[in-house]
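Quick one, C-alpha cells below:
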C-alpha cells in the first residue's frame, strides 16, 4: 500500500484550539469578562469591615452594595452573551471537525478501510467529536474565565497583604504538581474506555446491520452473549475511569480545604499579632475560592477534558492516516470514449497470500460489452475495482483511452462511470432522492425517462407516494427486484461512458431478472460495459466473454464459440446445468 508523505499532522487539542483563537476570541473575551468584573469583590469586603463597620457608615455600605449589584448585572450580561457565543463558535468548530473526518474517509485507501469496522469509524465521527465539543465548551466557558479571575484577584490581594498572598501562591504549585500523579492514570483509563467504546460500537453496529441474518439463523443467544461481553468490557473500563476521577476529585477537595485552613489560621494569627486587619482577612477568605478555582475547575472538568483529549487523539489517528489514495493525476480527457487496457497488471490484497491478478493483460475497446466469468476468487471484481481506482496495481499499468490511469483526475473519471452491484444500495430518503444522487441537477422528465428505460416507472407510480415514497434505510421497504431497477435507473440517469454490472441479477427471481436484463440492455447501448457474472445465462448478449481463473485469463470469445469449444467455459456451463 502506497503511503503519502505530504500530509501535515494535526495539532494536539490545545494547539487545535489555539489555531482557531481568532474565531473564539470574542466568545472567550465575554466569558472571561464575566469573572473579571467580580475581581473587586474581596476589596469591597475589606472596606466594609475595616472602615464602614467601625465608623457606622451605613450610606457607605449601601453604596458598595449598589456597586456590587451593578457588577452582578454586568456579570449576568457577560455570562449569557459569552455562553451564547461559545456555543455558536464551538458548534461551528465541531462541524468543521466532522466535515474533515468525513472528507478524510473519502480519500482513505480501501486497503485501510477493508480492515476497519464501520462502527469504529462512526464512533470517531459522532462520539469522539461530541467529547471534543464538551471538552472545548468546558475549557472556554469554565477554565479560561477561572484563570483570568484568579489572576486579577491575586493582583488585588497583593495590594492588601503581599505576605499572606505569597504563602498561598508558593503552596499552590506544590498542590498542582501533586495532582500530576493522577493525570497519567486518568489518561490511561480514558484511552482504555475509548477503545472499549469503539469495540462495543463496532460490534453493535455489525449485529444490528445483520439482524435479519441473526434471527433467520435463530442465533439471538450467541450474538447477545457476544455483545454483552463487549458491553461488560466497556462497563469495566468506564467504572475504572470513574473511580480514578472520583479519587482525583476527593484528593482535590481535601487539599483545597487544607489550603483554606492555612489561610484562615495564618491570617488569624497575623490579625492577633496586629500584622493584618480583620477586613483584609475577610478579603482573603472571600478570595480563596477564586484563587484555587482554576485548579478546582480543572478537577471538575478533568474527566471531560481527558475524554475530549482522548476523543481528539482518536480523530487525529484518522485525520493523520497516511493510507490515502495515491492518485495525484489532474488530467481530464476532452471526450472520454471508454477504451480500457490492462498491461501486465499484478495486484494482491493484503489479507490474501496470493495475488488476485498476476501479469494480467486485457484490452477492452470503447463501446464493447465484455463479460468476466469464473469461480469465486478468480479476480472478476478485482478488475472492476482497479478500473475505478479503488486500489492501485502493484505492478503494470492501466490505460484509459490510451492515458495512464495515474495521470487522470480519478474523481473526474469516476463521475463518468456507473456501477450496478448485486446488492443494490439505496440511501434513506425518497426514490426521487436516490435517483438524483446520480445527477443532482437532473430535470424531472430526465428522471422519469431513466426510470422507464429501467422498467421501474410503473411500479414507482403505483406506490402510495410515487416518486416521493420513502425507501427506508438501505431500501428495506422495497423488494430486491425493485431496488435493482432503481439502481439501474440511477445508472441510466448518470449516462456513464464506462458501466460496470457486478452480478446485478444473480439474486433475483426469473420475472425480476427478465425485467432487469431488459433494463440493462437499454443501459448498455453505446457504452463500454464490463459485466461480472456468476450465472452464465445472463451474459449471452455480451460481445466477448473472458474466463478467469486465479487471476489469469483461461479463454475468451463469444458465448456460442466458448460453449462449443469444449474448454473451461463449457465446463462451467455444464456445472450450472
Amino acid at each position: 500500500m502506497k503511503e503519502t508523505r505530504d500530509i501535515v499532522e494535526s495539532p494536539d487539542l490545545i494547539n487545535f484550539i489555539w489555531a482557531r483563537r481568532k474565531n473564539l476570541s470574542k466568545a472567550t473575551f465575554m466569558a472571561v469578562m464575566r469573572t473579571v468584573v467580580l475581581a473587586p469583590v474581596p476589596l469591597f469586603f475589606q472596606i466594609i469591615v475595616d472602615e464602614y463597620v467601625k465608623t457606622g457608615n451605613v450610606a457607605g455600605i449601601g453604596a458598595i452594595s449598589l456597586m456590587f449589584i451593578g457588577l452582578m448585572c454586568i456579570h449576568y450580561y457577560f455570562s449569557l452573551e459569552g455562553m451564547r457565543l461559545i456555543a455558536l463558535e464551538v458548534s461551528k468548530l465541531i462541524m468543521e471537525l466532522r466535515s474533515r473526518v468525513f472528507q478524510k474517509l473519502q480519500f482513505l485507501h480501501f486497503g485501510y478501510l477493508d480492515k476497519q469496522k464501520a462502527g469504529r469509524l462512526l464512533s470517531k465521527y459522532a462520539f469522539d467529536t461530541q467529547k471534543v465539543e464538551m471538552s472545548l465548551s468546558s475549557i472556554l466557558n469554565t477554565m479560561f474565565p477561572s484563570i483570568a479571575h484568579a489572576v486579577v484577584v491575586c493582583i488585588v490581594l497583593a495590594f492588601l497583604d503581599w505576605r499572606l498572598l505569597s504563602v498561598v501562591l508558593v503552596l499552590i504549585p506544590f498542590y498542582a504538581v501533586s495532582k500530576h500523579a493522577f493525570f497519567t492514570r486518568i489518561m490511561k483509563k480514558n484511552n482504555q474506555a475509548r477503545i472499549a467504546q469503539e469495540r462495543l460500537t463496532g460490534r453493535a453496529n455489525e449485529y444490528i446491520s445483520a439482524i435479519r441474518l441473526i434471527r433467520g439463523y435463530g442465533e439471538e443467544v450467541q450474538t447477545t452473549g457476544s455483545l454483552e461481553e463487549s458491553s461488560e468490557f466497556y462497563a469495566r473500563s468506564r467504572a475504572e475511569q470513574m473511580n480514578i476521577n472520583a479519587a482525583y476529585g476527593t484528593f482535590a477537595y481535601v487539599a483545597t480545604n487544607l489550603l483554606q485552613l492555612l489561610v484562615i489560621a495564618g491570617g488569624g494569627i497575623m490579625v492577633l499579632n496586629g500584622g493584618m486587619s480583620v477586613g483584609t482577612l475577610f478579603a482573603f477568605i472571600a478570595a480563596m475560592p477564586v484563587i484555587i478555582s482554576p485548579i478546582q475547575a480543572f478537577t471538575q472538568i478533568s474527566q471531560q477534558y481527558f475524554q475530549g483529549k482522548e476523543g481528539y487523539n482518536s480523530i487525529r489517528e484518522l485525520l493523520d492516516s497516511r493510507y490515502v489514495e495515491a492518485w495525484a493525476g489532474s488530467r481530464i480527457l476532452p471526450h472520454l470514449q471508454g477504451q480500457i487496457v490492462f498491461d501486465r497488471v499484478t495486484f494482491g490484497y493484503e489479507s490474501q497470500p496470493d495475488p488476485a491478478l498476476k501479469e494480467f493483460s486485457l484490452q477492452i475497446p470503447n463501446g464493447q460489452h465484455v463479460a468476466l466469468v469464473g469461480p469465486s476468487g478468480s479476480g472478476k471484481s478485482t478488475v472492476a475495482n482497479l478500473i475505478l481506482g479503488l486500489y492501485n496495481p502493484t505492478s503494470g499499468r492501466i490505460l484509459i483511452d490510451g492515458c495512464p490511469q495515474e495521470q487522470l483526475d480519478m474523481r473526474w473519471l469516476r463521475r463518468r462511470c456507473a456501477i450496478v452491484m448485486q446488492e443494490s444500495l439505496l440511501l434513506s430518503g425518497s426514490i426521487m432522492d436516490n435517483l438524483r444522487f446520480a445527477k443532482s441537477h437532473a430535470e424531472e422528465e430526465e428522471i422519469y425517462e431513466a426510470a422507464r428505460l429501467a422498467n421501474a416507472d410503473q411500479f414507482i407510480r403505483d406506490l402510495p407516494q410515487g416518486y416521493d415514497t420513502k425507501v427506508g434505510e438501505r431500501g428495506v421497504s422495497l423488494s430486491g427486484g425493485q431496488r435493482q431497477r432503481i439502481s439501474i435507473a440511477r445508472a441510466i440517469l448518470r449516462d456513464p461512458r464506462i458501466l460496470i454490472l457486478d452480478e446485478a441479477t444473480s439474486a433475483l427471481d426469473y420475472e425480476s431478472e427478465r425485467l432487469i436484463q431488459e433494463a440493462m440492455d437499454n443501459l448498455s447501448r453505446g457504452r463500454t460495459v464490463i459485466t461480472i457474472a456468476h450465472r452464465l445465462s445472463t451474459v449471452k448478449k455480451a460481445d466477448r466473454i473472458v474466463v478467469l481463473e486465479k487471476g489469469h485469463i483461461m479463454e475468451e470469445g463469444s458465448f456460442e464459440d466458448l460453449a462449443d469449444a469444449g474448454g473451461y467455459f463449457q465446463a462451467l456451463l455444464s456445472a450450472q446445468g
